[in-house]
Amino acid sequence: MTRRLAMTAQQLLGPIDLAQASPRRIGTLVAHEGIMLEVSGFPQPLGSNVRIKTAAGDYVNGEVVGFRGHRSLVLPFDTNLPLATGAPVEPHGASSMVACGKALLGRIIDAQGNPLDGRPPVKSPFQWPLAGRKVNPLRRGRVTKPLNMGVRAINGLLTVGEGQRVAIVAGSGVGKSVLMGQMIAGTECDVIVVGLIGERSREVSDFVETKLPPAVRKKSVVVAVPADHPPLLRLRAAMRATAIAEAFRQEGKKVLLLIDSLTRVAHAQREIGLTLGEPPTMKGYPPSVFALIPSLCERAGIDRQTGGSVTALYTVLADGGDIEDPVVDSARAIVDGHIILSRTLAEQGVYPAIDVARSLSRTMVDSVDPDHAAAAARFRQLWSAYEENRDLMLMGAYVAGSDPILDEAIRRHPDQLAFVKQPAGAQVDFQSSRQSLIEGYSA
Ligand SMILES: Nc1ncnc2c1ncn2[C@@H]1O[C@H](COP(=O)(O)OP(=O)(O)OP(=O)(O)O)[C@@H](O)[C@H]1O
Ligand SMILES: [Mg+2]
């Protein structure tokens, strides 16, 4: 088989040194289109890692992502090196396993597991597949235990349970990353895994310096890939962060996984899918994007066998506040809760700018007691009454006394905003959040 393909390459390209091609199956770079490379004489399976020798004698790593006829399609991890036609391409290392476990705690790595923190390479005998392990759905536990996230409005009104998956949806600059940092500092868990994907490079160091105080940092792993890196690396970073979280769960740990942002991961898959010739659908996203989001989010959850859990938060960018965006829609359909941040609240200085009426935790009913649930429902009722009638009130068309609920909503509105407001550096635990909600809003 190898030989026959090598022959094809030979016919296409003229003389190739076949002795060199075997036994290491060296392929030949024959085309470069956009970000994609075509390699002939190289029948490696999908997902294989390869390296290509550049004109300068260095190597560029890449991955086999598809086929076209008898040629393999390879995406390189570095796009700026001088590649020449006829360059040799060879298999390079076992591709799909990720170093995991406690050797990673306190470390900052890139999509390929290389250290970014100036410390020695991470060595760990504990390896886990990049794409995760398929599990029997019955092995996944139900979400029934509230997890303290350190944010009053979330603990009280949008209670996150251990093993839940939550999307934080907002336009740019409304406070997603700050809220995430607040939850990192406040969440009660054993390990925190953060995937910083497609952010500005400046934000990576900013994140590490401002949102990871030493006590938190020693139980955290950061996988960071800024926006200027090739799409395959951005995609792999999200998968690597998820794999690291899964491996800690396998050891029975309570893990918090944060992906900032899922939209950038979807953009990376969009670039790859379109290059591979997939048809664009809504907003130019090819179908593979809508397969990727569930496959990534489904990996979080509780493992009944080990007792470990991965509670996951994904930030999703809603351009121009558009929550009908296909990525938002597809993420909302798969996660068990969404926290929508409102630009209007942020502009009023209400931080975290949680739009209580439009946000929802679907598993909250299973994790809180009836008093707590009733108080949260009451809070929501008043909040929504105020929101729905805001225009009427602004026009002066509402006459006080005509609707008792609205009257109370107007009277209580400042209290409600005060309940949601919380300075970025402050933490409120689950019990006190519950207590103040019940005190203010029990029926
Ligand atoms: N809790 C807060 N208290 C005070 N200011 C805040 C708070 N949260 C956000 N801000 C303000 O909003 C700005 C943007 O916040 P942040 O970086 O979290 O937004 P983002 O939604 O992550 O933006 P992007 O879409 O660019 O990633 C901050 O620089 C800060 O000025
Ligand atoms: Mg951000």
Poorly predicted runs are 1-23
Rg is: 25 Å
Counted up, domains total 3
CATH architecture of the largest domain: 3-Layer(aba) Sandwich
| Text of the CATH class of the largest domain | Alpha Beta
Task: Please describe what this structure looks like.
- The chain starts with a helix and ends with a helix.
- The chain has 3 domains: 20-95, Thrombin, subunit H (Beta Barrel), CATH 2.40.10.170; 98-367, Rossmann fold (3-Layer(aba) Sandwich), CATH 3.40.50.12240; 372-441, Substrate Binding Domain Of Dnak, Chain:A, Domain 2.
- The chain has 443 residues and is α/β, with parallel strands linked by helices.
- The chain has 16 helices and 18 strands.
- Strands 8, 10, 11, 12, 13, 14, 15, 16, 17 and 18 form a 10-stranded mixed beta sheet that branches. It has a 6-stranded antiparallel barrel with strand order 1-2-5-4-3-6. A two-stranded antiparallel ribbon has the order 7-9.
List the topology elements.
Layout: H1 2-13, H2 18-21, E1 27-33, E2 36-40, E3 49-53, E4 59-68, E5 71-76, E6 88-91, E7 97-99, E8 107-109, E9 127-129, E10 140-141, H3 152-157, E11 165-170, H4 176-186, E12 191-197, H5 201-211, H6 214-217, E13 220-225, H7 231-250, E14 254-260, H8 262-275, H9 287-297, E15 301-303, E16 309-317, H10 326-334, E17 337-340, H11 343-347, E18 360-361, H12 364-367, H13 370-388, H14 390-394, H15 404-420, H16 430-441
Parallel strand pairs: 8-13, 11-16, 11-17, 12-13, 12-14, 14-16
Antiparallel strand pairs: 1-2, 1-6, 2-5, 3-4, 3-6, 4-5, 7-9, 10-15, 15-16, 17-18
Helix pairs in contact: 7-8, 8-9, 9-10, 13-15, 13-16
Magnesium ion binds next to helix 4.
Catalytic activity: ATP + H2O + cellular proteinSide 1 = ADP + phosphate + cellular proteinSide 2
Keywords: ATP synthesis, ATP-binding, Bacterial flagellum biogenesis, Bacterial flagellum protein export, Cytoplasm, Hydrogen ion transport, Ion transport, Nucleotide-binding, Protein transport, Translocase, Transport
GO molecular function: ATP binding; ATP hydrolysis activity; protein-exporting ATPase activity; proton-transporting ATP synthase activity, rotational mechanism
